[in-house]
Design brief:
Helices cover 59% and strands 14% of the residues. With 100 residues, the chain is of the alpha+beta class. Helix 1 crosses helix 4.
């Protein structure tokens, strides 16, 4: 998958969380440690690029609003796999240096 630039650490952490399971924004903020002003612009860019999809989830409690649930698309899953594959040689080299 061709990319114009390397995703940020924040973007990678979002991809990692969404790879495990779909999540709503508050859960993503808790799991990644990102604030809303960082999280939501990244989610919008990922959505515009076709890497993340969202849908409304009805509230399970009366009086609570519906919320967006985000999930990786097949293209988002492919990007995450590519990023992991690119990082594997770097992690191996770092591990070798640590053992030297």
């Amino acid at each position: 998958m061709a990319r114009s630039r390397t995703p940020s650490r924040a973007t990678r952490s979002i991809l990692d969380v969404l790879n495990d399971a779909p999540a709503h924004g508050y859960a993503l903020m808790r799991q990644t440690g990102l604030r809303s002003g960082t999280l939501y612009p990244i989610l919008m860019r990922l959505s515009d690029a076709g890497l993340v999809a969202s849908e409304w989830e009805a509230s399970s409690a009366p009086g609570r609003p519906a919320r967006h649930v985000y999930r990786l698309t097949p293209n988002g899953q492919a990007l995450r796999r590519d990023l992991l594959a690119e990082a594997a040689p770097k992690r191996a080299a770092t591990a070798r240096l640590g053992n030297a």
